[in-house]
Amino acid sequence: MNAVGKIKPNARPFYQKYSADQLKDALRKMYLIRRFEEGAEEAYMRGLIHGTMHLSIGQEGSAVGATMALRNTDYITSTHRGHGHCIGKGAEPKLMFAEFFGKEEGYCRGRGGSMHIADVSTGNLGANGIVGGGLPIAVGAALAIKKQKRDDVAMCFFGDGASNEGAFHEALNMAAVWKLPVVFVCENNKYGMSVSTERSMAVANVADRASAYGMPGVITDGNSIADVEEAIAEAIARARRGEGPTLVECKTYRTRGHSRSDRNRYRTKEEIEEWKARDPIPHFEAELMAHGLATEAEVIAIRKSAEAEIAAGIEFARLGTDPNPNEVTRDVYSNEAA
Amino acid sequence: MNAVGKIKPNARPFYQKYSADQLKDALRKMYLIRRFEEGAEEAYMRGLIHGTMHLSIGQEGSAVGATMALRNTDYITSTHRGHGHCIGKGAEPKLMFAEFFGKEEGYCRGRGGSMHIADVSTGNLGANGIVGGGLPIAVGAALAIKKQKRDDVAMCFFGDGASNEGAFHEALNMAAVWKLPVVFVCENNKYGMSVSTERSMAVANVADRASAYGMPGVITDGNSIADVEEAIAEAIARARRGEGPTLVECKTYRTRGHSRSDRNRYRTKEEIEEWKARDPIPHFEAELMAHGLATEAEVIAIRKSAEAEIAAGIEFARLGTDPNPNEVTRDVYSNEAA
Amino acid sequence: MRELTYAQAIQEALAQAMDADPTVFLMGEDIGVYGGAFQVTGDLVHRYGEDRVMDAPISELGQAGVAVGAALAGCRPVLEFQFSDFATLAMEQIVNQAAKLRFMLGGKVNVPLVMRFPAGSGTGAAAQHSQSLEAWLAHVPGLKVIQPSTPADVKGMLLAAIDDPDPVMVFEHKLLYKMKGEVPEEPYRIAIGKAHVAREGRDVTVVATSIMVHKSLEAATILDAEGIDVEVIDLRTLRPIDTATIIDSVKKTSRLACVYEGVKTLGIGAEISARIAESEAFDYLDAPILRLGGAESPIPYNPELEKAAVPQVPGIVEGLRNLVRGRM
Amino acid sequence: MRELTYAQAIQEALAQAMDADPTVFLMGEDIGVYGGAFQVTGDLVHRYGEDRVMDAPISELGQAGVAVGAALAGCRPVLEFQFSDFATLAMEQIVNQAAKLRFMLGGKVNVPLVMRFPAGSGTGAAAQHSQSLEAWLAHVPGLKVIQPSTPADVKGMLLAAIDDPDPVMVFEHKLLYKMKGEVPEEPYRIAIGKAHVAREGRDVTVVATSIMVHKSLEAATILDAEGIDVEVIDLRTLRPIDTATIIDSVKKTSRLACVYEGVKTLGIGAEISARIAESEAFDYLDAPILRLGGAESPIPYNPELEKAAVPQVPGIVEGLRNLVRGRM
Ligand SMILES: Cc1ncc(C[n+]2csc(CCOP(=O)(O)OP(=O)(O)O)c2C)c(N)n1
Ligand SMILES: Cc1ncc(C[n+]2csc(CCOP(=O)(O)OP(=O)(O)O)c2C)c(N)n1
Ligand SMILES: [Mg+2]
Ligand SMILES: [Mg+2]
Fold it and tell me: Would you call A108 helix, strand, or coil by DSSP?
């Protein structure tokens, strides 16, 4: 990928290796995620969506930065906070909304909802309702890649809280022992629901745990798409070369509550405000403009197009088809006879 | 505890802090374990014991060294390879044999057998048939100790293979976060059944994993009772002071097969012979005599007394009482009505 | 009498147990300052402190093992699983350790712990947050399994569970947490192992569990208008099962139906049916034994599919009507 | 025809599946150079290499998840648990992921994996190595659960399981591994979901699983001498259950007994009994439905207690005799 001419040579690699169009598309995806979450939140509050959902507002930098260098044939496993990963990997918001609205047009035909959102066609093996549930699954996908002699990778998203699950330990150990092409991406947003990392682990960073598996552990600023992407790109390259897994930690923050029922009793307004001031989107916009890679007018246009796409997506979802209530047992088995 | 007069001051602390009688008693326990295992093995081959068993021959140094500084009110959780831990903590071989023979006089009234051997009266909360099963249980016992404001400790034995279980990760993390008085004792005998540590983990030492929990990780020569005891003593003292858990790794080796069905296809005769040459018992005997803490005659007497106790124990067990076959559901619940 | 919600009744039981016994403590995920995913523990952490209302790392297997170890060493832990579905991560400690230790050690120890499992569908949380796995644990000797259906029952049975010397598993349907009912203020116990006749009737016996007790009572009221007199037995305890109470009822009504939310196949209704079919009550049966259980599928996200996946009042009414009218 | 042991029949099925399909691979603990705890994989690692016969770290939950991920990405993993008891560590991946992924994703994926579980008592390995937990998995929609009872069946059903697009759980009784029987050499499939009438009879229907099929056949021979003609149905598949075959038999014999090793309460016999009690066959029943299952206790270590904890031939003979002679 060629860098565009005008950018200064002293700019960090991220701005050199991608074209202006690619970088602007990354910004568009960050906006899509932000507006998607806001749209979902509003639809939920208006009673159009039931159940619960976990918003990733504030974490768009890691979602897009981590998935930018992935191919369609690479896999990701995602989490309960997975809308951003899904869009980052290339899913269509309107089909995601259709899923939230429980429609046949949805990615899971209305059976999965937010916690199981998946777009297999773009390599997303699914969000997961079980904290840590996706970790060994990603390792298994990577094992299949290796057996099939592909140079694809499996990227596994998980949170700081998930790193306290036994599944984390078993998954990282197996990936390391078998030198599998996995990129473990921990989005450390400081809390597992209400419990801070200080109260749930005895080390400062989740990346500190990589040494127990003899794999590199890298810490990045999760609110800087550039910082995330550069570390991930290296991890992906390492995996494609057959050199094994890497654990990349993205320090970030969710500015919304854990889920709809969160009263934020476990953190201060100040902390939330402080992180809102470090919003990854304006940060990225500013750098794009500083490097002359995008004009203010272009940025505004991107914002608007994202808003339009989200609005259209919600409309599409609202008009979707309701499943037939007599089809409860459909797709339990591949052979419906069973 | 005062050192006996004649020992040279340059002897390592282990030989200074214990009296000659205490050290000779440690040797006696090592012999008891060795002869116990040999006696159990023979009884098994003669068809007097059914089921399976996992012998700890070659690992007596860690079993006795680790338990030497424990009090009766301290707890241990043990493993499928737990006969040595049980004797180290103070159990009577004859009651252990009675258990193996499935008799009412046995520690578990014939219900548990080798894999569940336990002597609650000496603080042994039990062997465990589940690899890693005892790890969180020890943490829970330590939590109770802390709540009860006792200065006792919980010692958790486990193997190298067990350190690949999620339970290991969760247990060490909780013990560290809550600063509990636990001493994690990993008896690394190089294999989890047939799988070497090289094939099951990507780090050289189990102790290397301690850093993931912010706790000290110490490596000892498991075949040197002195080396083990000194490291453990420090870990115990740290735990009693309320400074939290320590992971102590004892490098050792089981010279017998994993269990009765093992054909040793996964290791070489040379390796086995090499380790037999490093037998912890003669090693300890030599040091005792070199330090003038025991005479050859005393050592021989100790050996004989251990042999006699084991022989008597087997006889006691053979003559024990068989459970009533109509009492299958006895002790399923505390209140038999249930 | 003053009314409490089901969640408040649990909280009161936990508080009274901690007041009465210093060895009782609570552990779980987000049960402290967050107050619990379903606000059951609420502000208990402020009243009893972080040592007795402990937030644990997200380590379900480890938490269960810690509860076992603490119970062996003299405490009475009450462990909250955030959703019963996560028990799938802790079955090793629950089934191999907690349930069997006393037996395996020849009766030399006991394991006085309580585990609480918010269970069931109806919240739109989809397949991994809506299961009813109580039948699994009711299959395991060494455990006791209860499923209280009212605020008054959950307080009394939870206090009995905390007193119990053996491990007790408590299944709480999430849709019941907000249900209100009269609850005595003082501590009291309701015996584990005794079923409760929630409604007397002559024509058919319904054995129901948890939220299905209420749906069955609704159905009974509707059928009453049709002249069908339904007896509703709230099973309350899934292990040990109070077979005698059910036998007596079936001898009277000659008809039996089991209504439960768990998957129909091998759900608790299978055991109730089999116990009656092998008992002296068999000869009194005038009709096949009806089971109304959950669909043979995971719980779907879509709200209409979700409702269709578990028994609802109209289906219960129809099923019982056909059973009594001999149209099965 | 040449004879193989049950273990050899499994090994042959695994080899033929790997020969026919490069995406099939084996994973488990000590299945490589050790040959498996029960010598089922034997020397397969030498014939197929370490990439297709993979020794895994002792991480049951992780292994199960790796199998799920590999299946999603185009492989057909066959995972061996060293003992079925250790499934308690992997229920999360088995039940929340493998069983539900296809459904939760709206049918967009399938999870073609096989898990093998050496199960049952009789080896003196005590409570944590002797359980029969098949009823748990038979309670879970999305899984298929089989329990082959002969060398010929295990080969044919295992090959069918590996072909199956959905997750199949195979329960193998440890005491069967050394059992010999005729086994065709070429690959063949035996349908999952079909029961097998192992012995025809007029007086009573016995539905048995796994090793209890053989004990029931022994009992049938003994009762034959007394003029009692027993029909023995080998259930073979616990999910989906072949109810039709059982109904037809009960209509003929008018008596039903279920014999299984799992704990009686909520074991597979409960479901068989309940299905007949709710079916049209109910009206044909001349006697209560007998269940002979495992004791309500963990499996004890002492050999005599261990035998007493599960159904044995004399008890089966007596139970069936009383059932037929109307002495229940
Ligand atoms: C096994 C399991 N335990 C608990 C939960 C409930 N739960 C859902 S999200 C969550 C917090 C997860 O924290 P983290 O991994 O840091 O992800 P984050 O929510 O911060 O993105 C918890 C406890 C769950 N879904 N699964
Ligand atoms: C959860 C579980 N998985 C597997 C086994 C079977 N098994 C028993 S001992 C053993 C090896 C354990 O290795 P390690 O922890 O190193 O202990 P060692 O036998 O070397 O003393 C295995 C795989 C088991 N008992 N429990
Ligand atoms: Mg987090
Ligand atoms: Mg080992």
Answer: coil
